[in-house]
Amino acid sequence: MSVFLQGMKKIAILASGNGSNAENLIKFFKNSDCAQVSYVICNKKEAGIYDRCKNLNIPCHYFTNQSFDTGEVQKFMINEKTDLIVLAGFLHLIPKAMVQHFQGKMVNIHPSLLPAFGGKGMYGMKVHQAVIASGATESGITIHLVNENFDEGEILFRAHVSIEAGDDAVKLQSNIAKLEMQYYPEIVEKLCRQLS
User: Fold this and answer.
1) Antiparallel, parallel or unpaired: β 138-145 and 60-62
2) Mean pLDDT of 173-183
3) Residues with catalytic function
4) Which of 122, 119, 124 is closest to 177 using CA atoms?
5) Mean pLDDT of 140-149
6) Cα–Cα distances in Å, from 194 out to 68, 84, 110, 186, 190?
7) What's the alpha-carbon Rg for the chain, to the nearest Å?
8) Residue pair 106/136 in contact by the 8 Å Cβ criterion
9) Quick one: what percent of the chain has pLDDT higher than 90?
10) Which domains does the chain have, with CATH numbers?
């Protein structure tokens, strides 16, 4: 279990899947002087994130989607004195009450240049397939604050990648993943430093 120094911000990660972004964030913040990941919450029992957290010695808690909607997760986060919530491949709409309580302290990353290719049902490979099918010549990542709608919160940062002739969704996913690994921890840390 991490030892939290005075003034260190506590980050919670919400994940639903394999957890590559979550692992990248956990490793990044092990060396940060402003924040550390204190725990992960997952809403899928079979997700790969549990093994990653075990290997990294970070607690990973399972909560059902209903636990989010009833306010149980929000209470847990308040009791844990959570400062910042980071979504990393999390696929459940955050309830309005939770968004309001953590206003400006909840951030998400999306694998396209929002508002294009965002919204309900647009995640992971589905996004990259839609981008390729559209004939777009570029895509990228969007890091944004979370509001009560999918992928509609205030945009904090974007990074672009060109789509070359012959690129498919798998190639695009690989290129996007590099941007996610590079920029998401940096923007999250910047947000941590801005918190009072």
Assistant:
1) unpaired
2) 97
3) 110
4) 124
5) 97
6) 27, 11, 22, 13, 7
7) 16
8) no
9) 95
10) 9-109+143-158+180-194 (3.40.50.170)
Name the token pair of 8. 């260190």
Q: Which one, of 154, 143, 147, 150, lies nearest residue 111 by Cα?
A: 143
Tokens of 27: 């490793």
Check if the beta carbon of residue 26 is closer than 8 Å to that of residue 37: yes
How many residues can be counted in the chain?
A: 196
Query: Which residues are CB-contacts of 168 (< 8 A; sequence separation ≥ 6)?
Result: 132
**pLDDT band at 1; cut points 50, 70, 90:** very low
User: Is-above-0.90 flag for pTM?
Assistant: yes
Answer for the pair 138, 162: CB distance below 8 angstroms, yes or no. Answer: yes
Residue 95 pLDDT: 96
Per-residue pLDDT reduced to its tens digit, 74-102: 999 999 999 999 999 999 999 999 999 99
Per-residue pLDDT at 6:
62
